Amino acid sequence: MRRQTASTVDDLRRRVRKLMRERGSAVIGSPPRWPPYIRSTALTLAIALATALVVAQTFLPNRLSLKAGDVAQQNVTAPRSTRYESVLQTQAARDVAAKQVADQFDASVTTQQRDALDTLARDVAQLRLSNASLGDRSLQLSLLEPKLNDAQRQYLLQTDDAIVAAIFKNASDLLLELEGNGIKPDSLLTVQDLAVSRASALHLEKTAVQVVGILTRDYLHVNYLPTETTLKRQRASDAVPPVFVTVAKGQTIIRYGDQVTPFQLEEAQQVGLTAPQADWLRILATFLLVIILFAVALGYMMQFRRATLHSTRQLLLLGSLVLGIVLIAKAIVPLDPRAQYIVPMAAVPMLVSALLDTGLGIIVALAVGLLTGIIADNVTELTLIGFLGGSLGAIVVHRLESLGRWFQAGVLVAGVNFVTLIALGLIERHGTVDELLGLGVFAVMGGLLAAVIAAGLVTFLSEVFGITTPMKLLELMTPNNPLLRRLMVSAPGTYNHSIVAANLAEAAAEAVGANPLLARVGCYFHDIGKVRRPHFFVENQAEMGNIHENLSPMTSSDILNAHVTDGIELLDQYKFPQSVREIVQQHQGTTVKKYFYREALKQGLEVREEDFRYPGPRPRSKEAAIVMMADSIEASTRTLKDRSPEGIRAHVHRIIQGFVRDGQLDDCELSFRDISLMEEAFSNMVVSIYHARIDYPAAAADAQPGAVIAVDTTGGGHDGTLDDADEKTIPLPTTRTRA
Q1: Averaged over 620-637, what is the pLDDT?
Q2: Which strand (E) or helix (H) includes residue 235?
Q3: Would you tell me the crossing angle of helices 107-129 and 134-144 to the nearest 10 degrees?
């Protein structure tokens, strides 16, 4: 039996050492030749340019080149049906409504000027009654009305009262008449000349007529209100509803021999017949807009989804979905003016949310809506419909744990599309209520179609692009999973440990916003490699004794290394997702198997700490780091003597800080706040599991003092009990554990 065991161990040692030498090629998802950000930026830019080319094709030259005033050399018929808002006819109707609004004048100016003239009349009357000399009175009058000459002033001061009264009466009446007709800045001189002309027709003395003309001319002021006039005309213009024109497929737009009108050109443009030259400004604007949209998505991924940036497959998936919906829009929109609302825009953000990330899905919803709006020349409406409907769909399918989510998402997206379309139509007065309701039906169909398409593609895309969906994870964690059943039968101790650790990992993942399903599944299978040699691990040894007592520390270390590589081989064999395989590969990181390292030192072997480290790599994702800590905490807590809440919390803190000090968490995206939140979640879960129980006397009677505890050889990077001195030299968790 011992010979067979020794032979098995030697064979295992050779295999493990070979795998360790080749671990560079065994690392899942080895880094590419290019730096990840350069590769991601280049790929994103290529996809953005391809998308921009498809969208900008709308503004490229078409086959018909005409301008207003040309004589048509052939009949021009519409290649498709369309209903559009006629800019020309709408503007013409609004211009007519604006012209019907009369010029606005300020009546207070007329009153003000008349009052000023009356004040002058009273001043003249006082001067006429004054005892001052005629020269002094004339000088005072010149200050009041400088436009009169000396003869005219003396005439006003010396003539009869009746004539003076007639002068001011006629000047006031003429002022009221001319001001009442309205005076604009450009017509003031004309009206002043008219005042002089009208005064000359009065039956008064010559000097009196001259004074009337001068006074009227001097007191005429502009009373035109340009702002008020413009505002009222704008209101009248805005009150005119848009004029919609329907063009039927095959309808003759321009007849042979007709002189082409601007309206006919507008019709031809709406059915896609006129584009005499490329609209380079719009093409440039489209390229810039598309690049900005992709830059926003790239920036989001750099900040929150670096794993996507490092995955060429995921970037290709994202670009393919956006480019695909743009091509669909290009094909559907020309068919019918109502077809733009049936484009399944929400399918893309829902797929992005289900396969990648919800926040990224919301950004994609905005991009898809905007690009479809540019293609359909209906930017505002389709952008809002695509963004609101797509965002809601992305949020609903965030955790896709059942097929019912797709039905729920489809109904909600359809409802949002309908309400958004109706609301925008009423706000912008696009058509009647009946017409809007008819278009709303197409929007509802678009929302339902988006959910159907997304539900049908999610499984296919996840397989093609190697993305793990929640549904896939739920399938893996069912008790009927053959590999999980094998673990339960072959290594029941490891199975029990994995289930409990999974509860801890799920709670921690929830606390820091990681993927709780992935963390749970990763815990279920993190020690799956132990099924090949279950009895080499203490939790599966039962009463058979500790095999490692007969092995050298180096051999035991190689055996522990093998449970990682064996696990990866099994997961490859059973076609597990890459995300789960990466967790299994990284869950031990490069931690030290300290128990065997100390045993080697005790035996006087010349070894280094690096010889007893796991090959790694260290955790590269939140979920992998969570599984590492949950594995260590669950196993080590089983041997913890002080299971009070305070003792458990202190123990959890030591375990996590040990990983931090050893640099095991340096490659994953965990912040100090995340570590604090995970520590709290782990502590709460462990306290709830190992809560205080009544110490029954019978149990105490069965205890056997001095019983020997088997050496823990689970390989969790935490095997053996270290004192404070050991912690200073080997900065890792200090309690005996199970992996």
Answers
A1: 92
A2: helix 226-238
A3: 170
